Structures are given as C-alpha cells and as structure tokens.
C-alpha cells in the first residue's frame, strides 16, 4: 500500500529560472516522509521525534516543477532491514512524471550516537506500505583525494534541525552553492541566470545523489567543499563533491550531480566549446 502526502508550496520555493529549485524538492520529500511517519500513530511519530537520520538520497528530475500551491507525493517502503528503511517517491504534475527519488533512513540513538534497530510496532507500519523498489542506479562515485575547486561554506544558525545538526536538505544547499560558484569559475559560460553574464543559457540538475557519512554541526568555522568534473558528456557534466572538515580532514558528505546545459526554453543543447574544454582539463578520475 502506498501513501500519498500533500505538501504546501511556498512562493520562495521558486528559483531565478522560474521553477522549483532542486534543493527545495528534497525538502518536499522530507516533508512527505515526515507526514508518512506521523500518520503511523504514536510509535512512528515517537521514532521521528527521538531521531531519524538520512543515509543517502537518489533524486531524478524528469521535468521542472511549477508553483501550484500544493504538490502531491506518492511514497512507499521499497526495502526494509533491521535498522534501515528505503523509501521511494514519485511526484507527478500535469499527468507527467516530474521526480523519482529514493531515500535510505535509519532510526538513531543520539545519546549513544549509533543507529538502533527497528521496534516491532515500527516494522509493522512500514511493512503495511511495502511495494516494489524503483530502478534507480547509483551514480558512480570518484574519490577526489583533495582534487577539485575549493569553496568555503559558512553554516547558518537556521541550518540546524530539531536534532541539533545541519539538516540533510541544508547540506544540499552547501553542495549547490559550491557547484554554482566553482563551475562559474571554471568557465564564464556556466554563469547562472540572474548573475549578470548568465542569461543566455540554462543549467539544470537532472540527477543528484548524496551520501551522508557524518553529521555536520552549526559552528563558526566554515566547511571545505571540493567540486570537480568527473565525467563530461555532449550536453551535460557529472560533478563530484565532497564536504570536508578542515581540521581533521574527514570527509563528511559526498555527492554527485548531473548538470545539463539547455537553451532559455529548457531544451537541451551541447555544452559551449569553452566550457567543454575547461571541464575536460579539470577532469578527475580514479
């Protein structure tokens, strides 16, 4: 049995390109996931209150989402382990598939700082909503090993969630900010709309994977974000990102994104020659 969540949209969800921003879509998924767990009654709502952490997201953007006041999200449990739950999602708009996604979460004991196993009552709720998993293949991960363009991201007080760490959605903000700044540095043709030089092309996210290795805290010290091209195609580039604690050198988050070049009407086009050359020169592989 699948669960349907209805998430209220906000005008601020729109980005400068006139559609719902890719990071906001992850926020919609989080809101839908929370509604699903609250609907399970005292047991699963208490699980949500006590602690649930995201292990990873896999998000495919089929088409842009527009502002309609509300978005309907279908979700279900695609896989259930002893301490892990995979939740899959489908977002439709105008009878077209707009977003397919998958999230792995686990209940977490914040006092002991370890995942915990699912309780029987929690498992019963999730079993009621089992269905076949979507065929979402993981994007290949390339270890940057210090390579890539650096960007220092400063956490904000409002980035923290009820568990006291940087929320998983806000972490995607960090990845996006670094991606926009560094790709514009790579080649001016990759400047985004509204930045002065970025009104001739559109740069759209077609796919995004993110893996959370450790929790990020809100602190005065910035995090180092490295971004590098790991594959260059005809009309797109796959960018690898790592968020790193500068003091320890620990990799806290890894991400991959497929960035597509498009005309102002949203139709895919070939990468500009200058961008292709610059990206190819910086290509990072295993």
What's the end-to-end separation, in Å? Answer: 42 Å
Please give the CATH class of the largest domain. Alpha Beta
Global geometry:
globular
Tell me the quaternary state.
single chain
Query: And the CATH topology of the largest domain?
Result: Thiol Ester Dehydrase, Chain A
Q: Would you report the number of β strands?
A: 11
Q: What is the percentage of strand-forming residues?
A: 25-35%
- SSE order: EHHEEEEEHEHEEEEH
Reported for the largest beta sheet, the result is: 11 strands, antiparallel
The number of helical runs is 5
- Runs in which pLDDT lies below 50 for 5 or more consecutive residues are none
The CATH homologous superfamily of the largest domain: Hotdog Thioesterase
**On the 0-100 scale, what is the average pLDDT?**
96
In CATH terms, what is the architecture of the largest domain?
Roll
**Relative helix content:** 10-25%
What would you note in describing this structure?
The protein has 286 residues and is of the alpha+beta class. It folds into two domains: 137 residues, Roll (Thiol Ester Dehydrase, Chain A); 145 residues, Thiol Ester Dehydrase, Chain A, CATH 3.10.129.10. It is built from five helices and eleven strands; from the N terminus they run E-H-H-E-E-E-E-E-H-E-H-E-E-E-E-H. Strands 1, 2, 3, 4, 5, 6, 7, 8, 9, 10 and 11 form an eleven-stranded antiparallel beta sheet that branches. Helix 1 runs antiparallel to helix 4. It is globular and about 55 Å long. The mean pLDDT is 96.
């Amino acid at each position: 049995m699948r669960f349907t969540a209805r998430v209220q949209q906000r005008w601020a969800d729109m980005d400068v390109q006139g559609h719902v921003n890719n990071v906001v879509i992850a926020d919609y998924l989080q809101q839908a996931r929370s509604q699903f767990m609250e609907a399970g009654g005292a047991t699963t709502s208490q699980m949500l209150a006590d602690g649930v952490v995201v292990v990873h997201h896999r998000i495919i953007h089929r088409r842009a989402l527009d502002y309609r006041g509300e978005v309907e999200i279908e979700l279900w449990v695609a896989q259930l382990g002893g301490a892990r739950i995979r939740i899959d999602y489908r977002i439709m708009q105008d009878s077209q598939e707009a977003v397919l996604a998958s999230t792995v979460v686990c209940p977490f004991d914040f006092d002991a700082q370890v995942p915990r196993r699912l309780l029987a009552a929690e498992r019963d709720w999730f079993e009621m909503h089992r269905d076949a998993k979507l065929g979402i293949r993981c994007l290949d991960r390339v270890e940057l090993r210090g390579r890539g363009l650096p960007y220092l991201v400063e956490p904000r007080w409002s980035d923290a969630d009820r568990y006291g760490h940087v929320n998983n959605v806000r972490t995607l903000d960090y990845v996006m900010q670094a991606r926009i700044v560094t790709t514009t540095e790579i080649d001016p043709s990759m400047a985004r709309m509204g930045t002065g030089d970025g009104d001739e092309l559109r740069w759209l996210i077609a796919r995004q994977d993110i893996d959370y290795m450790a929790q990020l805290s809100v602190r005065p010290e910035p995090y180092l974000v490295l971004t590098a091209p790991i594959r260059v195609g005809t009309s797109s580039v796959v960018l690898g990102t790592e968020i790193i604690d500068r003091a320890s050198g620990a990799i806290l988050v890894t991400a991959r994104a497929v960035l597509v070049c498009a005309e102002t009407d949203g139709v895919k086009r070939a990468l500009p020659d200058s961008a292709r050359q610059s990206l190819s020169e910086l290509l990072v592989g295993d």
